[in-house]
Amino acid sequence: MRHLAACLLAALAPAQPAQATLPVAAVVPLARPFSLGDVRLLNSPFKAAMERNADYLLSIDPDRLLHNTRLYAGFVPKGEIYGGWESAGIAGHTLGHYLTAISQQYAATGDDRFKRRIDYIISEMAVCQEAYGDGYIGALPPTELATLRGFRNGKIEMAGPFTFKSGAWVPWYTEHKVLNGLKDAWILGGSEQARAVALRLADWVDSVTSGLTPGQLQEMLRVEQGGMMDVLAEIYSLTGNPRYLAASRRFYHHAVMDPLLWGQDALVGLHANTQIPKVIGAARTYEVTGEPEGRVIAENFWGLVAHHYSYVIGGDSDDEHFYPEGSMSNHLDTNTAETCNTYNMLKLTQHLFCWNPDTETADFYERALYNHILASQEPKKGMFTYFMSLKPGMFKTYSTPFESFWCCVGTGMENHTKYGGAIYYHGVDDLYVNLFIPSALTWRERAFGLEQDTDYPTGNQTRLVITRAPAAALALKVRCPGWAAGQLSFDLNGTSLAVPGAPGTYAVIRRAWKAGDVLTVTIPMSVRAEAMPDNPAKIAFLYGPVVLAGDLGPEQEGPTVPYAQSQYANEGASAPPVPVLVRGDGPAEASVIRSSGGSLVFRTQGIGRPEDVTLRPFWEISYDRYNVYWDLVTESRWRSVGTQEPSGF
Ligand SMILES: [Zn+2]
After folding, report:
1. What is the pLDDT of residues 459-478, one digit of tens each?
2. pTM of the entire predicted model
3. Which one of 97, 229, 304, 528 is most buried, counting C-beta atoms within 10 A?
4. Residue 234 · residue 269 · CB < 8 Å
5. Ligand 1 center from residue 344 Cα (angstroms)
6. 53 C-alpha to center of ligand 1: Å?
């Protein structure tokens, strides 16, 4: 995929010309996601995570998030400013994430407590927008706001990838969250007032950037800008107003996008989470204009990151940056796998899946969802990881409720409100069952409904119970994961079906369904090992979709354990030596044995040195020290080196 070049652009011509109807869409996707309100989660770890997150969202005081908004509009704040990043130059990013999160939560559940918060925040923002006077609304401190306003006069002075010379810290990044939150309050939260506030802010973005020369724009884009290109393209789609598409195009960063368009890998050394939203913007531009370049950029980038720069958990980056391919085994550090990156990679993956529904992208989605996103939430307070450390023997560090407000807290708030959005997709008369998460689906346009009942991945079956069906035939397309240990099998109402179910394909079952039909899907699972791309002697274990981590016992609670104000608080923490595995006659995974009982607990048998280890799903390990990648050594090597220098193997 990474070598797609210009000669292929013609093959990706728009499926049909731009439509006059809204939203503007120049490309007809083969698959579409359902609205969050069409899918209700049933009991599972995902529903538990969503409910825990909802409690946290309700514990946040909107007036505190609006502190700066009122202060710098000339009003007395109604709440104290929050700590952490909300007291720094990036203040206000949480306000935007929060609007998106509560809008998604409201869309998914219809819970009025969230609707009231949406309406309150928007009404406060509308009043402040009047006071700011020029259309701006947000919660930026004076330096950041003055810097953006200064762009109107062509004053672009970049200092580094995150700052302008004024000292402003990523002001467009922050404003993107606000504009996106307003858009979500409008579309998902049903707020007409949010529409007016959002469009006025979008007009302001246009007015600030419209006079800049191409050179000035490219200079501006050297500082992280979040998903400005994406959200403006979406607002164009929602309104049909070409002014917003023109504004979106001003955020096209040639230095990063052009190599991707030509199939080159120029990512090494770049800040990972700065780039992913740009690529999502390119993907969205393809969808609203039909211009094929955006799709090429998105597919090339996705192929690079998913296949060459991602750890087994689906996350990427070390110290937030892409590092040279072939050096991953030197990057098992405390600061691996920023959680925002995976939030954004999942967004991008959804675009690719909708254009070309295949199991490659769907498998990646599942991997990253279970092993990074679900694994990023702390189960007592619903707190969030920033980095997902892959340092052997390390533990997870979580945010505090009100003194951190990192980027990954903002995206984290959103993550757990939208699990229902990626389980099912649909075409015209086909339904994709992508994830095996207990849920109830209503497909309104086709008068079809089903409930998915499963204890997957603890069990290896899922039951799809049809609750409502039209007279006409519909195709159920069930994902057969590429990792499956054999053909999937299908049983309808107790009778075996002769349906091909090869791993890495979709099993297609087309029939006139009846309410009460029960389709049982069996997914063969086994323990398997995945080696690091650059080192076959460093392996991780998986069972089905689940990364298994060695559980090395609890880490003692302390001032920064498990909750820390700074994401770097435990950066220098030491880790004890981690057991190694010795090579036997067979593959290592043959010596990883599932304990009896209905849980996903495994233990190595005879290959651990100095002792065998217990393995559990990575997402379930919250307060213990853990290990994901194991050194695989010969018995004689183990005898001569021992445990003192595990990284020296
Ligand atoms: Zn982050």
Report:
1. 999 999 999 999 999 999 99
2. 0.96
3. 229
4. no
5. 10
6. 17
